[in-house]
Specification:
The chain is mainly β. The chain has no helices and five strands. The protein has a three-stranded antiparallel β-sheet with strand order 3-4-5, with no helix packed on it.
């Protein structure tokens, strides 16, 4: 695996049998992951990575939700039966 400015590329080795009639075995494997994302996640679109939910702000009746720079603002408004929940979660795994 070769990294060129953060972009991975693969180069496969070549193999030859130098002595005819001798036993020969060669194995090569390569597993390619998702393409390297070129931009950050945009709110309300399909994300670059797994296990990520992105939703945009909205409103129900007189209640409103605003999402801005890791801040969730809930405005319950007036009326009955309005339940609002705001949550911001970061799940980071470093191996």
């Amino acid at each position: 695996m070769i990294h060129d400015f953060g972009v991975p590329s693969i180069s496969f080795p070549s193999a030859t049998q130098a002595t005819s009639g001798e036993a020969f075995s060669f194995a090569q494997s390569y597993v390619e992951g998702d393409a390297t994302p070129g931009s950050a996640v945009t709110v309300g679109t399909v994300p670059n990575f797994s296990d990520l939910t992105s939703t945009s702000a909205g409103s129900v009746g007189t209640a409103a939700v605003a999402i801005d720079n890791h801040t969730i603002t809930l405005t319950p408004g007036t009326g009955t039966g309005i339940v609002m929940t705001g949550q911001f979660v970061v799940d980071l795994t470093i191996e």
